Amino acid sequence: MAHYVTTIQSHLPAEAAFEYMADFTNARFWDPSVSSAARDGDGFALVSRFAGKDVALRYEVVSLEPPRLVVLQAKQPSFTSRDTITVEPDGDGSRVHYDARLEFSGARKALDPLMQLFFNRVGAKAAAGMIAALNP
Questions:
Q1: Of these four, 5, 16, 70, 77, which has the most CB atoms within 10 Å of its CB?
Q2: Containing H/E element for 106?
Q3: How far is the C-alpha of 14 from the C-alpha of 86, rounded, in Å?
Q4: pTM, to two decimals
Q5: pLDDT digits (tens, 9 = 90+) for 6-57
Q6: φ, ψ dihedrals at 37, nearest 5°
Q7: How many secondary structure helices (H) and strands (E) does the chain include?
């Protein structure tokens, strides 16, 4: 499994930071690998650049506990992507903890070490975007 974790300090109050992050359509603004994002019923439809190809993903909200926690998950035949976002107050601002996991199935599990390197690069770019978005 490829795994990326980061914690972002934000000037935004916890409620505002949570609202922004829980609306996964905003991923197109902070994650450079996301080319489009829209609401899709109770979930979100994203197109993400993955290993040189555009991949359509439909994220479902697995858990929602405003203004503290949202868990989003997209399943494909060969992998599952699960993003857990936790927000907590920190002085006048907040702390946003982002935990992204990409789990391959079947024979593709052998790609995990390579995918971890890729995921680290993608995650670092997304984290830089989150820092900018959460500190206007």
A1: 70
A2: none
A3: 10
A4: 0.92
A5: 999 999 999 999 999 999 999 999 999 999 999 999 999 999 987 788 999 9
A6: -155, 135
A7: 3, 7
List the end-to-end C-alpha distance of the chain, in Å, as a whole number: 33
Contact indicator for 93, 87 with CB cutoff of 8 Å: no
Contact criterion met (CB below 8 Å) for 72 and 60 = yes
Which domains are present in the chain? Answer: 2-32+60-133 (3.30.530.20)
Residue spans of alpha helices (H) in 72-111? none
Best CA proximity match to 78, nearest among 59, 60, 57: 57
What is the amino acid identity at position 99? D
Residue 132 has what DSSP assignment? H
From the list 55, 24, 38, the residue with the least C-alpha distance to 118 is 55
**What does the alpha-carbon distance between residue 3 and residue 88 come to, in Å, rounded to a whole number?**
22
What is the per-residue pLDDT across 84-119, written as a single tens digit (0 to 9) for each?
999 999 999 999 999 999 998 876 666 667 777 777
Secondary-structure percent of the chain, ordered helix, strand, coil, rounded to 5: 30, 50, 20
